[in-house]
Amino acid sequence: IAVKALYRALLTQCESVPLREEQRDALRNIVRNRFKANIHLVSPRLLRLSLHAGYTALDRLDASVAGHFPSTMYITRLLGKTPRQLTAPPEPKVREKKLYPDSVLPPPEYKFFNRFPRPTVEGIRRVPRMISANQVPFIRWKKPQPRNVSRIIRWEIDNRRKETDRRHNLHDYYISITEHEDKWDSILEREFRIKNSREERAWCSVPQQQLREVNLASAHKAAEMEERVKKYQAVVDAEAALAEKERNERKQAARKRR
What we know:
Blueprint: H1 2-16, H2 21-37, H3 44-65, H4 69-81, H5 84-87, H6 112-115, E1 129-132, E2 137-140, H7 147-192, H8 205-257
Helix pairs in contact: 1-2, 1-3, 3-4, 7-8
């Protein structure tokens, strides 16, 4: 927390130093580059030295902002001696898109509905179970759970959260505020004969249409989820029937051996 506060204070004071715009930009870049270079420091001694240097620089900036001319000249001289790589803008952090290897994605012959229900199994059949992970139904048939199944569950939960947030934002904020805009337009037209120049009368029509689209997409996903649950249940029932059949066959074979 102290480091973040120091970082923000330095950037704030860099904005107010009585220097040219390009010099203030150079100061901001120095702060960003130095903090970026020291972000992984864990040594108490190095951290103490870095914080001391940061607070010393902040004191010098405060004095310059307050009108202390020698401090301003001191900062100007240091800027002239600072290496170019420190005054240049820091390189933006590029996040590499995580690509899932082909080994994580099962080939078609190993996809769930292409494998289940299983005609035969080695040993005693373990009937898969249909369970719900945060209201996302799926079939658990072995442990540990396959990585692609966990990834799909996380994706489903994240999408549902985003959809819920969007629905609430539209209903609680955008529709409400645009309805007030429509009321204000009505007052202007009624009291002052000021007509809205927009072709579409209602401000709230756009967020209302977006909310209808979100609800329609949600209903479509719910129908797909219901259909998926039926397929899962059919697989579980078929596996249970096969397990019962195989159990009876084992019992009959055991009687014959007696």
